[in-house]
Structure formats: C-alpha cells, structure tokens
Amino acid sequence: MDKLKDLAGKVGGNSSGGQTTGTTGGNPGQEDYLDKGLDGVETKFGGGKIDPAKQRGMNEKITDFARDKFEKSTGKDVPDKFSN
C-alpha cells in the first residue's frame, strides 16, 4: 500500500504522500464502478486492515489517474457508466 500512497501523492501533487479527504471531481459522495471495484479489491486482499471509506480521498486520486491514462492512451473518453 505504501507504493500506492506514494503514487497517489505524486499524482495529486501532495509530496508528503499524505491522505486527503473528500472527492476530487464529478459527483461528490457518489462512487462509480471503478471506485467500487477498487474498494472491493482493498476489502478482499487488504486482510481486513484497509477501510475503503477511510481511504476514499486516496482511492479517488488513483481512479482519476487511471481514467486519465486510459483517455490519453486510447484517445477515447471513459464510458459514463464507469466515470463520475
């Protein structure tokens, strides 16, 4: 998880790698399929040590980064079903 925190810190411009709260765009407080999928992976493989609700800010940065990379590499927008 430390690597993910470092990546999220770099993507979000937070050089300390700290966690931020809230959502970063789209519809605040509403999770799309990608957000829910990441929460499911954390729950399943986190060994019960990761609470997705507490990691919401960092998870949002990770999923936004993934969406951005998808759009840049394919030239297509992420389908509305998967995007905030």
In short:
The protein has 84 residues and is an all-alpha fold. It has helices at 2-12, 33-45, 56-74. It has 3 helices and no strands.
Question: What topology emerges from the helices and strands here?
Answer:
Blueprint: H1 2-12, H2 33-45, H3 56-74
Helix pairs in contact: 1-3
Which class best fits the helix and strand makeup? mainly alpha
Give the helices and strands as they follow along the chain: HHH
Biggest sheet, open or closed, and with what strands and sense?
Answer: none
**Rough shape?**
elongated
Task: Compute the number of strand runs.
Answer: 0
Oligomer: single chain
Number of helices: 3
Assess the beta-strand content as a share of residues. Answer: under 5%
Termini separation = 24 Å
**Poorly predicted tracts of residues:** 11-26
Radius of gyration: 13 Å
- Helix proportion: 40-55%
The whole-number mean of residue pLDDT values reads 74
What attributes does this structure have?
84 residues; 3 helices
If you had to describe this structure to a student in words, what would you say it looks like?
- With 84 residues, the chain is an all-alpha fold.
- Helices cover 51% and strands 0% of the residues.
- Helix 1 (2-12) packs across helix 3 (56-74).
- The two termini are 24 Å apart.
- The relative contact order is 0.20.
- Residues 11-26 have low confidence and may be disordered.
